[in-house]
């Protein structure tokens, strides 16, 4: 643990990211809104095609999240709320990062534990960060 005097003033400061605006770390309200939108889409698709089976809903959520992040840089909820997933090292997001990130997100717990930069364990494992567009 670091002493309070060494804590950053805002999430992303240690990463060289701005406090707010474009390229800043997406805050919790947007993240919750994004996942609610994604889950809502997944429920509608699951109800329409899979009789709203719980595992089907989770599979639709994971598929929607992974494919859209690979192709568009974020899930529908991310994009609607002005967020996108980028690799910490820069460059393209690729395929393995969204797949790993989504698999860990589907487990729930890695997504609810995060560091001082508001990066969940799923983002840390995948080497990604969720930023404001």
Automatic annotation (TrEMBL):
<feature type="domain" description="RDD">
    <location>
        <begin position="56"/>
        <end position="127"/>
    </location>
</feature>
<keyword id="KW-0472">Membrane</keyword>
<keyword id="KW-0812">Transmembrane</keyword>
<keyword id="KW-1003">Cell membrane</keyword>
<dbReference type="InterPro" id="IPR051791">
    <property type="entry name" value="Pra-immunoreactive"/>
</dbReference>
<dbReference type="GO" id="GO:0005886">
    <property type="term" value="C:plasma membrane"/>
</dbReference>
<dbReference type="InterPro" id="IPR016795">
    <property type="entry name" value="UCP021697"/>
</dbReference>
<feature type="transmembrane region" description="Helical">
    <location>
        <begin position="32"/>
        <end position="52"/>
    </location>
</feature>
<keyword id="KW-1133">Transmembrane helix</keyword>
<feature type="transmembrane region" description="Helical">
    <location>
        <begin position="58"/>
        <end position="86"/>
    </location>
</feature>
<protein>
    <submittedName>
        <fullName>RDD family protein</fullName>
    </submittedName>
</protein>
<dbReference type="InterPro" id="IPR010432">
    <property type="entry name" value="RDD"/>
</dbReference>
<feature type="transmembrane region" description="Helical">
    <location>
        <begin position="98"/>
        <end position="114"/>
    </location>
</feature>
<dbReference type="Pfam" id="PF06271">
    <property type="entry name" value="RDD"/>
</dbReference>
